[in-house]
Amino acid sequence: MKFLIVCFVFAALSAFGEEESLSTTALGLFKTGGPLMYPLAICSCVVVWLTVYSFFETRKGKFVPKGLPERLEAALYKRDLKAALDLLALSKSVLALVLAPGIEKLKYPLDKEERSQAEEAVLEKWEGKSIAMQFWFNLLSTIAALSPMLGLLGTVSGMIKAFSKIGLGGMGKPELLAGDIGEALLTTAAGLIVGIPAMVSFFVLKSRFDIRERELLARVTELIDVYAGAGLAREKVRVKLGLEEEEEKEKPKRRRSAAAKEKESGV
Question: Does the chain have fewer CB atoms within 10 Å around its N or its C terminus?
Fold first, then answer.
């Protein structure tokens, strides 16, 4: 890939620079590689663009923005679904996209069937988003497989031309074969130079995406638990928000209120 990028950068400069043999300049190497160098050059540019784009699309802030889960926890702890939906509407994150359909199906008290429906709505939305996001690094995988094959095609094309010239009596003139052999070798190298970084980028981005997916779905489960009161999720939010002390202060008032009601009923 670096070779092809250098070819693009120095192609124009070579045209205005000192006269040199075509085989020693970037433009000359590009021309020697033959017509298949053009699709390989396009593939190299696409690999760079896809790598940069997918890297930013799989950053943590894109999936779970900083501060949003905490605000959602506060709203869901109070079982204020409207406030939670308003927070999600203001966010363009993946968490907001996939969680909103699930929250719309929540109600209190939440039984197993209703929770299952909410989780299914989340997973259905995530499945569609996941397919759309994975399309881009699946394209990287396609380019990684296609580029070496284009290089191999260039190799075969160059060797066919070389043997054709040998058949016409060019065996004793190596300068006649140099261009065809150069085409065969350069396209092979170019195909590998594009394909290897594309494959590495694919595996790195796929692993990065899988990590983000696990974090996202774990966070969604925690938020639903906060609303439903399942497990320790609600207790953790209560401590985090400092509501434990407030509830302790409210207990004497509740006892006095209950005692007053009992006294009135006794009267």
Answer: C
Beta strands in the chain (DSSP E): none
Output 134-139 pairs: Cβ under 8 A, ≥24 positions apart. 134/206, 134/209, 136/50, 136/53, 136/54, 136/57, 137/50, 137/54, 137/201, 137/202, 137/205, 137/206, 137/209, 139/46, 139/50
Q: Count the helix, strand and coil residues of the chain and give each as a percent rounded to the nearest 5.
A: 85, 0, 15
User: In this structure, is residue 176 part of a structural domain?
Assistant: yes
Q: Is 66 left (phi over 0), alpha (psi -120 to 50) or beta?
A: beta
Instruction: Please give the model's pTM, rounded to 2 decimal places.
Output: 0.74
> In the predicted model, what is the mean pLDDT of the chain?
79
Distance CA 204, CA 222 (A): 28
Q: How long a stretch of residues is the chain? A: 267
What DSSP character marks residue 242?
T
Say how far apart CA 202 and CA 54 lie, in whole Å.
10
Give which of 50, 96, 30, 36 is closest to 69, Cα–Cα: 96
| 161 contact partners, CB below 8 Å, separation of at least 6 | 180, 183
Number of compact structural domains in the chain: 1
Span 50-74, pLDDT tens digits? 999 999 999 999 999 999 999 999 9
Domain presence at residue 247: no
Q: What is the pLDDT of residues 39-52, one digit of tens each?
A: 999 999 999 999 99
pLDDT of residue 111: 82
User: pLDDT below 50 — which residues of the chain?
Assistant: 1-23, 245-246, 248, 250, 267
